[in-house]
Amino acid sequence: MRILPITPVRGKIFDRHGKIIATNQLAYKLTLTPEKTKDIPANIAGT
User: Fold this and answer.
1) pLDDT digit of tens for each residue in the chain (47 aa)?
2) Dihedral sign (CA 20, 21, 23, 25)
3) Residue 3 falls inside a structural domain
4) Do residues 12 and 20 lie in contact, with contact meaning Cβ atoms separated by under 8 Å?
5) Which range of residues forms the domain containing residue 25?
6) From CA 43, how far away is CA 46, in angstroms rounded?
């Protein structure tokens, strides 16, 4: 397993009155490819 941090570069979106209508929010996503992972439960447990 490898950790691959990816930080998107985005900005806030404002309406024509200067009110924020979209902003950034930190989120995490975990993806495992079964064909590339020998022991999924052990990988999830961190062992």
Assistant:
1) 677 777 777 789 999 999 999 988 877 877 778 887 788 788 777 75
2) positive
3) no
4) yes
5) 13-39
6) 5
